[in-house]
């Protein structure tokens, strides 16, 4: 059996790379390559890596806010950017092991949270309420909007051949954009769950969405997107628990307590594994606790930190190797790309990840002090949106001020305001709120 992360031997057949069609490297707006020798997907990766949108993730909280650890040790929590980089490392290796172009998967992982607004999922919910009259707000749809419209990189040709409005964003290849699309449907279009708040494209961005999905089965995610999604699940389920322990919010000994376990399983059944038997969740948690490397105590010492770090590595390897092995069992040893396969994750492994998500939810996200903070954050965003709508273009960055001036009607102007707020970091949202609401 190969070790997780061992890549399939490289091949150089075809201008688009192995198992990728010429249409996969097409861009919304054709452009010449500035330097021969790079693949189209390497160019995609470089564009996302150098984007301002990626850099802004450094100022967005993942789970534990910096400086909130126990007095006994420094929590050094992850930001949304460090989570993204870790997700990209996991996805690149897993994708390469399964025969994907590793740059395509890494682009998808680097891009998957670019539309993440200030204040995390709480900010996402607040912006969804603000944007309800214009089709809502969803972080994944916002990521697509950034990649294809808002992130300044390439211009669509204007009249007379002069640069026009910023309309093509990073102008990534079709395969890269498709790989970054976690939810390939409009609002209300999730198969079997039309009421789901998860969707991947706003109506005004449908032209580029239809282009990137050309030839794709309706609502089906490409293989690289599935690898990205699983890598995201693995990274944040493992690392959120690690950060919770390091910050002193989670004592791992609580996972042996009957009442505490019941609370965890209640969260898991409600949010992460609906329809699952509680006994299966209990068995999943017990499998993890039975591992020799599981950290049953954490006191912040160097030894405890090393054991915890080893546990995170063991968990990532466990979850990725299980998916790699099961997928290979189902689809053989060849290169798996685009729509040639489905990522297979054993049910027991999915439940182990779901339990870890529930542990982080129960002990970190459900802290009473966080609920007070979340309420205050929602007020900040609601008041900021109201102030910007009344006083724009004042308060808007030059890019969004220009788009606001060009907007045809109140709905388009509101979308510009939402785009501006979504681009802010946690700190810049608070700063702009103070500037816009202080007499």
TrEMBL record:
Classification via PROSITE patterns: HD (PS51831)
InterPro entries: dGTPase, dGTPase-like, dNTPase_2, HD/PDEase_dom, HD_domain, PHydrolase_assoc_dom
Region (Disordered): 1-41
Pfam families: HD, HD_assoc
Top-level taxon of origin: Bacteria
Domain spans labelled HD: 80-237
Single GO molecular function: dGTPase activity
Classification via CDD domains: HDc
Keywords tagged on the record: Hydrolase
GO biological process, one term: dGTP catabolic process
Keyword Hydrolase included in the entry's annotation: yes
Bias (Basic and acidic residues): 24-41
Recorded coiled-coil stretches: none
Family to which the UniProt record says this protein belongs: Belongs to the dGTPase family. Type 2 subfamily.
Protein name as annotated: Deoxyguanosinetriphosphate triphosphohydrolase-like protein
UniProt organism field: Streptomyces cacaoi
